[in-house]
Amino acid sequence: MKRIIASFIVVALVAVFISLDYSRAEGGSYEYYTTHWREVGIPNLVTAILADWRVYDSLGEATLLFTAIAGFYLLLGGKKR
């Protein structure tokens, strides 16, 4: 049962990573930041970057860490019978 759950998690993560848009933005990230920072509604460019885009990065890292720990526990951990 543990291997089925772990396999399902792996397949779901692969599907998510395949569905992401990996195309390169025209002009790079600097141009994007300088032209779209007002959409956030924060008057300072640096604060807008920290409050908006970096939050998604941190959320992704936390999700990855949680998934790794859960996968490790499902595959190798758990109660011994």
What does this structure look like?
The structure is a single chain. By secondary structure, this protein is mostly helical. It contains 3 helices and no strands. The protein has helices at 2-19, 28-36, 45-76.
Outline:
This protein has 81 residues and is mainly alpha-helical. The chain has three helices and no strands. The longest helix has 32 residues.
Topology:
Blueprint: H1 2-19, H2 28-36, H3 45-76
Helix pairs in contact: 1-3
Largest sheet: none
Give helix and strand order, one letter per element, not per position: HHH
How does the overall form come out from the CA principal axes? Answer: elongated
Secondary structural class: mainly alpha
The level of helicity is: over 70%
Terminus-to-terminus distance: 15 Å
Radius of gyration, in Å, reads 19 Å
Low-confidence stretches: none
**Strand fraction band?**
under 5%
The total of helices stands at 3
Beta strand count:
0
Mean pLDDT: 79
